[in-house]
Amino acid sequence: MTSRSIELAGLALEVISVAGIESALIVPAYKVAVDLGRGGDQVVQRRNVFLTHAHIDHLGGIAHHVGLRALRRLPPPTYFVPAPIAARVERVLDAWRELQEDALPAEVRGLAVNERVTLRKDLEVVTFATDHRVPSLGYHFVERTRRLRRELVGEPGHVLAARRAAGEELEDTHERVELTVAGDSTIDALLASPAALTSKRLVMEVTFLDDRVSVEDARRKGHTHLAEVAQHAHLFENEALLLCHVSTRYSALEARALVEARLPSALFERCTLIAGDGP
Question: Which one of 48, 79, 171, 230 is at 20 to 30 Å from 35 when CA atoms are compared?
Answer without folding.
Answer: 230
